[in-house]
Amino acid sequence: GQLVESGGGLVQPGGSLRLSCAASGFTFSSYGLSWHRQAPGKEREWVADIYTTGSADYADSAKGRFTISRDNAKNMVYLQMNSLRLEDTAVYLCHARNSHGYRYWGQGTQVTVSS
To answer: With contact defined as beta carbons under 8 Å apart, do 34 and 103 qualify?
Structure first.
């Protein structure tokens, strides 16, 4: 299986970005999906989950600003990020996992929030 992220870039504080993650090589609809991020010198941090049911959970830092969604027909997962802050700067990674312990990680896409 493979995950490929896209949509990162440079954005000013208060701006928005939409990250995309394209999946292939596994049964997408049966996997829970999540976004994580890693800033320079920091531990990898969970951002949001979306389950096979479509329900979602968010880290406190993402609540009210970020929205995770999935399109099972297109094998895509998205992260809409609004009201971006300087501290949101990180590499954002897509992750897939199923109930049997199979997991996949993408390579990540850089998000830089700067004025």
So the answer is: no
In which residue are the tokens 């440079």 written? 10
pLDDT tens digits along 41-84: 999 999 999 999 999 999 999 999 999 999 999 999 999 999 99
- pLDDT attached to residue 103: 96
* pLDDT recorded at residue 32: 97
3-class secondary structure per residue, the chain: CEEEEECCEEECCCCCEEEEEEEECCCHHHCEEEEEEECCCCCCEEEEEECCCCCEEECCCCCCCEEEEEECCCCEEEEEECCCCHHHCEEEEEEEECCCCCEEECCCEEEEECC
